[in-house]
């Protein structure tokens, strides 16, 4: 089987590429290399192409035919919530326009199976203990909105062109499956804290007065390697006969607070952290933890790594890169 992985030079995409290669699948990576890193795609063919460009659909269709691809995994998108609030047009243009080009190319090249990176950001600020896929999404920022609309586009493409699609709603992804594929961006809690510690600074907790047991926000942290396995399971699902669902949460169903994450980082580094307590960050839900029942039942997938595994892998990847 041959899969075209769009955005395969990114943090999550490259983990999926590596996993598919280890399973003996043929992989062609398409990436603009605007944030992707070429070295992460070792072992796969790399085509440099920006899926948001005006002629991208024809070029992608050409690549799909040339590769003899039978499936596509589409990662390439902007993913910073704050940036999406400041530059909404860029998010709508690139995330939605890019996806439109990908779906048109699949239809034209008669590639049937598509896995799309969606996000827990579609849910906004849900007031429930465990978020199920039945909950109606109410995104509160343009990033989450583009992911939700992307899911509608998949449904439309199924009806119009007979595609088969799955959207994976990622919860809080962290860790590294291979040191060289680690998250180099400093945008989320674990890399932000590791970066601050490296600079000799204390971590900052964004609010400790939430209605949670220790007052800090609770999230569902999933190991990037488990997330990569979820993509492989999604491809298998699309290739099978039975396919009752189109949307899946990808998380563990277990919540960890910011202070629990900091404790885990302290354990992994063998030091006690002394966090500063800062003000709340706008738009943060107190708790965002998924129900992972649907993906377990339909795809047979469960997260196998706990918070300590996740944090340890991130710390070790930085050490492997010669950082403290
Ligand atoms: C986690 C928790 C912060 C930094 C984001 C996107 C979401 C999805 C995953 C892509 C929060 C707290 C953070 C710090 C802190 N992305 N924090 N100090 O916001 O849960 O989710 O990434 O699809 O759409 O919104 O992740 O890692 O930014 O924050 O206290 O220095 O850590 O307030 O509670 P978030 P995050």
UniProtKB/TrEMBL annotation:
Broad EC category: isomerase
Functional pathway: Carbohydrate metabolism; galactose metabolism
Annotated source species: Brachybacterium sacelli
Reaction(s) the record says it catalyses: UDP-alpha-D-glucose = UDP-alpha-D-galactose
Annotated family: Belongs to the NAD(P)-dependent epimerase/dehydratase family.
Domain of life: Bacteria
Keywords: Carbohydrate metabolism, Isomerase, NAD
Essential cofactor(s): NAD(+)
Domain NAD-dependent epimerase/dehydratase: from-to ranges: 4-251
One Gene Ontology molecular-function label: UDP-glucose 4-epimerase activity
Entry EC number(s): 5.1.3.2
UniProt-listed Pfam families: Epimerase
UniProt protein name: UDP-glucose 4-epimerase
